[in-house]
Amino acid sequence: MAHYLPLSRVARLVGVTRSALQKMIQQGELATFDGMVELDELLRVFPDIQWQDEGELEHVNAIKERAFAKRILERTLPDKEVLAERLYQLGKELGSAKSLLLHYDQVFDWLCQQMSEVAKDMGREPAAAVLALKHQLRQQLNAGPEEAGRARSLLAEESVMRIMSVHVTVQPSGHDFFVEGNDTLLEAALRAGIPLNYGCSSGNCGECKARLVSGQVKKVHPYDYVLSEAEKANGGLLLCSYTAVTDVVIEAEVAGAADIPQQIIQTRVRNIEPLTEDLLALHLFTPRSQRLRFLAGQRVRLSIDGAEGDYHIASCPCEDRHIEVHVRRDNRNFARKAFTGLHKEDMVTLTGPEGNFVVKLDSHRPVIFLAWDDGFAPIKSLLQHVMSLEAADAMYLYWVSDRLVHYQENLCRSWVDALDNFHYRPLAAQSGLAGVIAAIFADHPDLARFDIYAAGPAEFVDAARDAALARGLSLLGWHSERMD
């Protein structure tokens, strides 16, 4: 009785990234079937991994010990009705497995009886051989396979993991994510960096309408949008109002840059973080009922008291209501206001998003990111988005310092420490544009399998593009944003 696990859950169980598993699949080191990994194959490929039966439960208990606050537990644990339903579904699976094992045991007993009857009509030597075979079969079943202990541990941890978080697959894009705590399907997708289409996020507009292909969901928020009877019969639901009870497959639209409408949102200044003498990070928060819809790499217009300016978003769409922009000291009215008259809790009007410098969601190739000075802002957003998707085989960041220092160097170093497939190299513009370009592409003589995202002044972007194309990069793999 084969047991299959989705690739994303395998990544969690063995503690590696999904991109690392995909690389193993491409190299023939790990076999899959329809994107799933069979239990025996997992045990074969990862013989040294030890699973603890109570791993996820210990994690929950640690949370309880660290914080008694009810709100923290509510964010971590599913709703009690959802939790009860997941336990019920797991109980049904356990009952089915036990029933099947009982049936197998009955079939084996019947087979043994038949072998004994057949042996009666045989000569002494054939009868002895049949009875010996029966004895050997019984010994094999009683002994169990060598991997039985590790398999039990893995299945136990996977069962608890399925109670704490369920797996969602999106068709036809093929994206997947996990629903944890009390998140709706929409909230969980956005946290994972998957820009499913939506509008109001409160059940009124119907823009997040999707279809349930398989699995079980539960309504957790009321909604006013009216689904037709035909839509309901076909599995129609609103992603903002439902959560997943079991692993599910949904049919839903993934938004592109052209699908996101312009929004006007009154945001609040939560923090003004000096990065250098001439650069600050402005941290804005949107209202709970009006989070900004945007894609990593896009820009917005900020205005307050008649002062306004356009800035690229430096935060990831997966960061919920938090919007970060990097403001350089220059002659723009908004910049002067930010450095001299902006305070915490001030209201800033945000209009946007704009731009097509966004992640290619269907690509799983290695990615090179190129940033010049504060071109790091959109690159940072793109990087975090790719990290949240766990899609790229490898990520390389080259950040050129000209008029600004590498102002978030510690963040880049932390990514290097945390991710095996992330590589970072700071560069100085003092070596000249030709020297910078040569240093970047010395590491990559063949770019046929890469995607490149570059942000900075036109001269840098154009020179990098020419050098990349000369090394085999496809035009479809080049993405850039001029920041003059």
Your description of this structure?
The protein is α/β, with parallel strands linked by helices and 484 residues long. Among the domains are: 164-257, Roll (Ubiquitin-like (UB roll)), CATH 3.10.20.30; 260-354, Elongation Factor Tu (Ef-tu), domain 3 (Beta Barrel); 367-482, Rossmann fold (3-Layer(aba) Sandwich). It is 39% helix and 24% strand. The chain has helices spanning 7-14, 18-26, 39-45, 55-66, 70-76, 80-120, 124-143, 148-164, 185-191, 229-233, 333-340, 376-389, 409-418, 433-441, 458-470, and strands spanning 4-6, 36-38, 165-171, 176-180, 209-214, 217-219, 236-238, 242-244, 248-251, 263-276, 279-285, 299-304, 307-312, 322-328, 347-354, 367-372, 395-401, 422-428, 451-456, 478-482. The strands form five sheets. It has a six-stranded antiparallel sheet, covered by helices on one side. Strands 4-3-9-5-7 form a five-stranded mixed sheet. It has a five-stranded parallel sheet with strand order 18-17-16-19-20, with helices on both faces. Strand 12 and strand 13 (307-312) form a beta hairpin. The radius of gyration is 28 Å and the shape is globular. The termini are far apart. The model is unreliable at 52-57 and 59-74 (pLDDT under 50).
